[in-house]
């Protein structure tokens, strides 16, 4: 399935709307691509589509409320989550979390029947870690220990800062951005990082995406996982 367009994020959002049916509860991701989808969904809701959302961040919640999308929680039956990603490899494994919402994004995706990821073609990589850092969310109390253990894994952790202070997530945690370089074995690295006491989550989303929708120039195309 393909469509021509000159506006990649708008095209991705419009394409994703095709998967939303009347009465659906939709997980609303975070970031630029997900924000474009929230705006497109809100326009359809104003035109009469019955749909509700489950936001993955405080920022997305504010946007959805401002635009008039009714919101519910994880008690709802979530049909699909539409979100973005920072990197996508050939197996549709992801790195997420450059926007800082990785924990709630994972929870909402896990509660959904399907996860659909919207990206521009520059986010496609041969190997995860090749394009940017790997975010790791950490309890503030555990920062010194987590820093040492991440350094022992040769991940070169850097505490994310915002306005000269540590960046704080919606869950009141902090994030280490790890310069992993290309990750040869993402599953093993995820296990090693998660074994560190104080680590809440990593930006490695392995096997979660059912479909990745890619805007490449003037074309939108679907990449579908062969099995979940």
How many beta-strand elements?
16
The second-level CATH architecture of the largest domain is 3-Layer(aba) Sandwich
CATH top level assignment of the largest domain: Alpha Beta
CATH-assigned fold name of the largest domain: Rossmann fold
Order of strands across the main sheet: 3-2-1-4-7-15-16
Mean pLDDT: 95
Strand content: 25-35%
How many structural domains can be distinguished in the coordinates? 2
Name the structural class: alpha/beta
Structure description:
The protein has 228 residues and is of the alpha/beta class. The protein folds into 2 domains: 8-124 and 206-224, Rossmann fold (3-Layer(aba) Sandwich), CATH 3.40.50.1360; 134-202, 2-Layer Sandwich (Alpha-Beta Plaits). Helix content is 28%, strand content 29%. It is built from 6 helices and 16 strands. The strands form 4 sheets. It has a 7-stranded mixed sheet with strand order 3-2-1-4-7-15-16, with helices on both faces. Strand 1, helix 2 (32-46) and strand 2 (52-55) form a beta-alpha-beta unit. Mean pLDDT is 95; it is low at 1-6.
């Amino acid at each position: 399935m393909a469509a021509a367009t000159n506006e990649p994020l708008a095209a991705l959002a419009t394409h994703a709307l095709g998967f939303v049916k009347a009465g659906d509860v939709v997980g609303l991701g975070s970031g630029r691509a997900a924000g474009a989808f929230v705006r497109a969904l809100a326009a359809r809701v104003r035109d009469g589509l019955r749909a509700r959302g489950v936001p993955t961040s405080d920022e997305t919640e504010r946007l959805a409320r401002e635009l008039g999308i009714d919101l519910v929680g994880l008690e709802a039956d979530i049909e699909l989550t539409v979100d973005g990603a920072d990197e996508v490899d050939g197996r549709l494994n992801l790195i997420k979390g450059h926007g800082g919402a990785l924990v709630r994004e994972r929870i909402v995706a896990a509660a959904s029947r399907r996860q659909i990821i919207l990206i521009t073609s520059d986010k496609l990589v041969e190997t995860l870690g090749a394009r940017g850092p790997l975010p790791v969310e950490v309890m503030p109390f555990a920062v010194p220990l987590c820093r040492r253990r991440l350094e022992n894994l040769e991940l070169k952790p850097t505490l994310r800062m915002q306005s000269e202070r540590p960046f704080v997530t919606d869950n009141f945690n902090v994030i280490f951005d790890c310069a992993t370089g290309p990750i040869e074995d993402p599953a093993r690295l995820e296990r090693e990082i998660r074994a560190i006491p104080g680590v809440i989550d990593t930006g490695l989303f392995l096997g979660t995406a059912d479909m990745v929708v890619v805007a490449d120039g003037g074309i939108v195309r679907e990449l579908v996982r062969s099995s979940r």
